[in-house]
């Protein structure tokens, strides 16, 4: 949803402003997802189940 808002704002803001919006609104959300993922993996605590999952950070770098 936040990405959709950012996409809609493209016509009204400069690239620098869009980058600032991304860094302030979207990146923190992704960092929260990383923390949630690491906690979930600790709860599961089974390498046979978690080894096949790609971490969010790796998926973002693709």
UniProtKB/TrEMBL annotation:
This is Uncharacterized protein. It comes from Portunus trituberculatus (Swimming crab). It comes from the Eukaryota.
